[in-house]
Amino acid sequence: MKILVTNCKVFNSDKTSLYIEDDKFVNPFEIDDTVVVKDMKGNMVFPGFVDLHCHLREPGFEYKETIKTGTMSAAKGGYTSVCSMPNTFPVCDNASVVHGIMKKAKEAGFCRVYPVGACSKGEAGKELSEMGLMKEAGIVAVTDDGKCIATAELLRKVMEYSSDFGLLVMDHCEDASLSDGSMNESDTSTSIGLRGIPSVAEDIIIARDIIMSEYLGIPIHICHVSTKNGVRMIREAKKRGVKVTTETCPHYFTLNDENCVNYDSNFKMYPPLRENEDVNAIIEGLADGTIDCIATDHAPHHEDEKTIEFALANNGIVGLETAFPLGYTYLVKTNRITLNQLIDAMVYNPSSILKLGRGSLEVGADADFTVMDLDNEFVFDKSKMLCKSKNTPYDGYKLFGKTILTVMGGRITYEELC
Amino acid sequence: MGLKNKDLLGMKQLSAEEIMEILETAKTMKMVLTSGNKKTSHLQGKSVVTLFYENSTRTRLSFELASKYMGSASANISASGSSVSKGESLLDTVRTIDMMATDIVVMRHPQSGAPHFIAPYLNASVVNAGDGMNEHPTQALLDLFTMYERFDSFEGKNIAICGDLYHSRVVRSNTIGLTKLGAKVSVYGPRTMVPVGIEKMGARVASSVADAVKDADAVMGLRVQLERQHKSLFPSVAEYSSFYSITSDILALAKPEAFLMHPGPCNHGVELPTAVYNCDQSVINEQVTNGVAVRMAVLYMLMARRNSL
What we know:
The structure holds 2 protein chains of 2 kinds. Chain A is of the alpha/beta class. Chain A has helices at 67-76, 95-108, 131-137, 152-163, 187-192, 199-216, 228-240, 250-254, 276-287, 303-306, 323-332, 339-353; strands at 2-6, 9-10, 18-21, 24-26, 35-39, 44-47, 49-54, 79-84, 112-115, 117-118, 141-143, 168-171, 183-184, 196-197, 220-222, 244-248, 293-294, 369-373, 378-379, 398-399, 402-408, 411-415.
C-alpha cells in the first residue's frame, strides 16, 4: 500500500509531506488512484512514541486489558512501540510466555510490543529467570516490576547474569519494609488518616541500585522515579559516570499527594504521588536531562478494583492516551522543557536505552509516526479511551496535543474521525 | 437550623458555627435525656441504620439509643472484617441499605475515607462513626460538649492529648475541632506513634507528657490501639506505662480546675493508672452520657436539613 501524508509539518525537518510504501518511508512517488492521501491540515508529524513501561495484562488479566485493547490505546496515544511488563499470570518469566505475547501483538497489529521479562522466577525475588532463552524469544530487558528486586544479593546476581545477554535491568525502587501504606507519607496522609509510604522507601533503593551499578560497572535503569532525592542521586551518579538511566511518568509531574484528599483511588499509584517539591524536582530533572524518559506505567484496573475503599484499591492508572498531551501541555507549553526534549524523552532516549532502533523519519526507515494537533485545546473524555479499563484521573482535563493519525510499519493504526 | 452538608463525614467538613450549633442543641438534648421522659418525636417516621464494620460498645449503643429516644425506626448491621473479604462490596451493601428508604446511615469502618467514598452514592445522610485512622467526629463533638459544659469559651484554652497519636482518629477530629474554636492543642506520644506533619493540623508536639499537660485546662488520654499495631511501635506495656502514662503526678501539673477525659475503652494501667481513671478530676463516665446527647443533636440536625429540602 502507498500512503501520502501531505500538508504537514515534519518534526525537526523542512519536509511538508511523507511518502510511505508498504512498511517504509520512501522517496516521492507519482500519485495515482491507488495512493491513500492523508491531508494533515498543517499538523505536526512526530516519530512514533516509544513507551518503556506499560502493563498490557495479557495473559491472565484479560478482564483489565488485552494486548489488542492495550495496543489500540497505545496507537491512539501516538505510540508505535511499547515495552510490556512481565507481571502477568503466568508471569512472563520463560520463553513460551514471551512467544505468546509477541504472537498476539503481531496478530493485533496496532503497535510493536517488546516484552520485558521477569528477572526472577515468578517475580518471587529468589531464583534467576531464564533470561537467555527469553532474550532469544524477544525480550528487551528484565525487571520484577510491581515489586522491587527483593535483596541486594539478588540484584547483584541479576545484574551480572543479565549483562551476559546485554539485557538491561529495570528496577521498581521501593523498600517493601517501608511501603506499608496507600499514599505518600506527609502531613496530607496524616490529616486524612491514610498510612503513608515515605519517599525514603524509594530513595534507599535508588541509592542501593546506584551503588551496585557503580561497583559492578553494569548499567541499571530506575523505573518511574518520583522523589526529589531520587532525582538528585541519579543526577550526581550520572556526573560520576555511573551507567544509570531513568524514567518518570506524567502523573509525577502533573499531580501531587494532595489530590488524594477525597479518597479517589484514581490518584492511588505505586510509587505514590509525592509532594509539590518532588513534582518540581521531577520537572527540573526532565529539563536538565537527569531523567531520560517519560514512560506511562499504563496500569489498567477493572472498575471493581478501583471503586472501593482507597487503601484496598489497586495501584495505578492508565496512561497511554494522556502521556503526550500531558507532557506537551504541562511541560512544553509552560516552557519548562522544549518540544525537542519532550520527543527525546518519549522517542529517542527510550529507543536508545533499549537499543530498539526506533525514531527515524528518513527514507528507508520503518514508517512509524504519529500526527498531533498542537494548536487546538480539547477536553479529555475517559469514555472515549480505547483501553479496556478507564481508571484515569484526567477525565475532563483541558489539554493540547490530540492525536490525528498514527501509522506503524506503514499501517494506519489510529485515525481521528472528525 | 440544620447542617450545611447532607452528611457528617468529619470535623474537617464542619464550620465553627456549625460546631457551636451542635453543642447548643446537645444542651437541650441532654435535658431531655436526663429528664424522666426520654421520648421526643423529632425522628418520628424516620429510619436510622447503624452499619459497623468494627467493634463498638459506646458509639454504637449511643447512636441506637439516641435514634430510639427520638422516635425513629432503627436497625443495626454488623459486619466483621472488610467488605471485600465478605464477598459483597461496600458500595453494594450501602446501596442495599439506602434502597430500603433509610434516612440516615451511621457507619464505622476500618478504612479511612470509606464514608467519604460511599456518601455521594446514597440518598441517605451518612454519619461517620469512625473511619480507620481518619476521623471520629461525634467523639470529638461529645468531647467538645463535655468541655463546653465547663468552659465559657474555647478561646485560648490549653488542651493536652497524650497517647497513640498515629492510629487515633480521636486526636485528629479533636485537633481539627478545637483549633477551629480557638483552643490550643498540645499532643504527645512515643515518637514511633507521632504521625508526620501533625503540627500542620494545628497541634503543638510537646517534648514529654509533663510538657503537654503543664497548665492544661483539659487533659485527654488516648487508648493504645493494640489491635491496630501492624508492627511493634513500643517495646512493652511496662515500658509504655513508665514513660508515657498520665499519672497523678503528671495530672497535678495541669491547672487546678482541669479535668481528665478519655474516649474509652481504657487500657487500665497503660495510658492511665486505674486510680487516675477514677479520680475526682475524671469526667470519663460523664462523656458517655454526653455521647448520647451529642448524637441526638447530630441526628436531629441532619434530619432537619433533610426535612427542609
